[in-house]
Write a structure and sequence with these properties.
This protein has 12 helices and 9 strands. The protein has 277 residues and is α/β, with parallel strands linked by helices. It folds into 2 domains: 123 residues, Rossmann fold, CATH 3.40.50; 109 residues, UDP-galactose 4-epimerase, domain 1 (Alpha-Beta Complex). A 7-stranded parallel sheet has the order 3-2-1-4-5-6-8, with helices on both faces. The chain starts with a strand and ends in a 6-residue tail after the last helix. The structure holds NADP nicotinamide-adenine-dinucleotide phosphate.
């Protein structure tokens, strides 16, 4: 499929990498953003239907990133998805999450909608991003306090590099055909935060610790850093699920979709070492 592609969330962690990987395949996608700047940028806001017609015009495939400020993903996206279908979009590749079952909360509801309505679709369900250590909530504590705070105990996660998620998305956006299914995406190994801390310690040459909190302590910490109480509790509860083994798995879907072995935590830390200096 070589027709025009729109990458929503095109300035974000996975979307920006999807854009780069499509360019590497010789495809120049439209970059969906609420604040267009570049010549390939398309103004797109899930909450502003006046942006839909121009953004979807001539588009055959879309990378879908749900708006990040609401848990009602389908409520926020449905009118945009319907506009995409009406404009002739054929293929949808949705970014969801490993813990979000089809028909469940957040992107799980969008997943079910795609099965019922989209001609061609794929749902990517990645485990936790390695970029959480280099670009998100774990970065500053690692750099400034030499610590990773979790309530995961010895729970293991198949951490995945956002570049590998993007490679899967790019492959599915341009493939001749797709299987209309979902893919749990992980890195090459399921590891605990102790192992992440040990890897950082070795690669940075200074001690980084994994500080084990209870779920309640972690929720309090999230709140003290400004998260609303309900969100802080939900986020901390996810660590409780990890401690119970919910994310302890590895799949070979990245290799099946891209032909490449996904990056390990050692490779990720080596490639992003400047993030913690
Ligand atoms: N971090 C993890 O470990 C993890 C694991 C599994 C799944 N996930 C899922 O990954 C998703 C986040 O993906 P990401 O990290 O690639 O994105 P991100 O870096 O958080 O960026 C989100 C993008 O969405 C755009 N956006 C926000 N609100 C929008 C709206 N109303 N309309 C249109 N665009 C909007 C923003 O672009 P502009 O500001 O340019 O408009 C931004 O580029 C979340 O749904 C999360 O649940 C995360």
């Amino acid at each position: 499929m070589t027709n025009t592609i729109l990458v929503t969330g095109g300035t974000g962690k996975t979307g920006s990498r999807v854009v780069e990987q499509l360019k590497a395949k010789g495809v120049s996608p439209h970059v969906g953003t609420r604040s267009p700047k570049g010549e390939n940028d398309a103004r797109f806001d899930w909450k502003d239907p006046s942006t839909f017609d121009a953004a979807f015009e001539g588009v055959r495939a879309v990378y879908l990133v749900a708006p990040t400020d609401t848990v009602d993903s389908l409520g926020a996206m449905q009118s945009g998805l319907e506009a995409a279908l009406a404009a002739g979009v054929q293929r949808f590749v949705l970014l969801s999450g490993s813990s979000l079952e089809e028909g469940g909360p957040m992107m799980g509801a969008v997943h079910a909608w795609l099965r019922s309505n989209a001609p061609e679709w794929s749902v990517l369900r990645p485990a936790w991003f390695m970029q959480n250590f280099s670009e998100l909530h774990h970065r500053n504590p690692i750099r400034d306090e030499a610590a990773i705070y979790t309530a995961t105990d010895d729970g293991r996660i198949g951490f995945i590099d956002a570049g590998d998620i993007a490679a899967c998305a790019a492959a599915l956006l341009v493939a001749g055909t797709v299987e209309n299914t979902d893919y749990i995406l992980t890195g090459p190994e399921a590891i605990s935060y102790d192992v992440v801390a040990e890897t950082l310690t070795y690669q940075l040459g200074r001690q980084i610790s994994h500080d084990r909190l209870t779920v309640d302590e972690l929720a309090e910490r999230h709140q003290s850093l400004g998260l609303p109480e309900e969100y802080a509790r939900a986020l901390a509860a996810m660590d409780g699920a990890i401690a119970a083994g919910a994310e302890d798995r590895v799949t070979d879907n990245v290799q099946k979709l891209t032909g490449k072995v996904p990056a390990s935590i050692v490779e990720f830390v080596q490639q992003n070492i400047e993030a913690w200096k």
